[in-house]
Amino acid sequence: MFGNYDMMPDTSNLKDFMNQMGSIGKAGDSETAGGGRLIIIADSMNMTGSLGSSLQANSLPIA
Amino acid sequence: MTGGSGGYVYIKTLNRAADNDIGEKFRVEAKGGNGANGNYGGSGGVIVFDGNFNVRTQQVSAAGGGAYNSKLNEDGCGNGGAGTLYIKNQSRLIVDNENKLSPKKTVLTAKRNMHTDSPSIIAKHILIDGGADVWIDSYANNHL
């Protein structure tokens, strides 16, 4: 099934990700699951690490 | 199996006590899944930076997933559509499918300006790259 989903974040309320619901995959098949929601609110962030360190909301199968 | 769609990453900082620092090797991703067993890739997700960030585009990916086989990749019809990266402090919107050509349109809504009845500007800087295909819609005509 195909559909059109607005991919423009709601700039007036960036925490509103409810209209970003995309594929949740095939029931019972975790390999088709969509990416999750990752919300971080902090004073500051220091993101360091070796190659491959990352914040990920990737879906499966891994791209 | 068809790849799932990428997720949503929202990072907000207030920067009252300290500045942000993103190391050169660090990555933030909301990528679509790859197709498997002859199927299609899923669309990319959404990444939002809301704070004082100096983001390098090569550190961030919201690309769609690739199709399972090369035939579907040649014309791109099996690749997932690109997701979006929005950097609020730079008013920068990036739609980059990382060289995976895709006819799947990334729909972006421009809300209508109530005074001029014309679509508003969604960002000061917009970059569409890497095989992405974008459709900018007006709020009033946006239907799922």
Topology readout:
The complex is a heterodimer of chains A (63) and B (144).
Chain A: E1 37-42, E2 46-47, E3 54-56
Chain B: E1 8-13, E2 21-22, E3 27-29, E4 46-50, E5 60-61, H1 70-74, E6 84-87, E7 92-96, E8 105-110, E9 125-129, E10 133-138
Parallel strand pairs in B: 1-4, 3-5, 4-6, 7-9, 8-10
Antiparallel strand pairs in B: 6-7
Low-confidence segments of chain A: none
Question: What gross morphology of chain B would you assign?
Answer: flat
The number of helical elements of chain B comes to: 1
How are the strands of the biggest sheet of chain B laid out side by side? 1-4-6-7-9
**SSE order of chain B:** EEEEEHEEEEE
The N- to C-terminal Cα distance of chain A equals 20 Å
Query: What is the quaternary state of this protein?
Result: heterodimer
Average of per-residue pLDDT values of chain A: 75
Number of strands of chain A: 3
How would you spell out the order of helices and strands of chain A? EEE
Task: Report strand % of chain A.
Answer: 15-25%
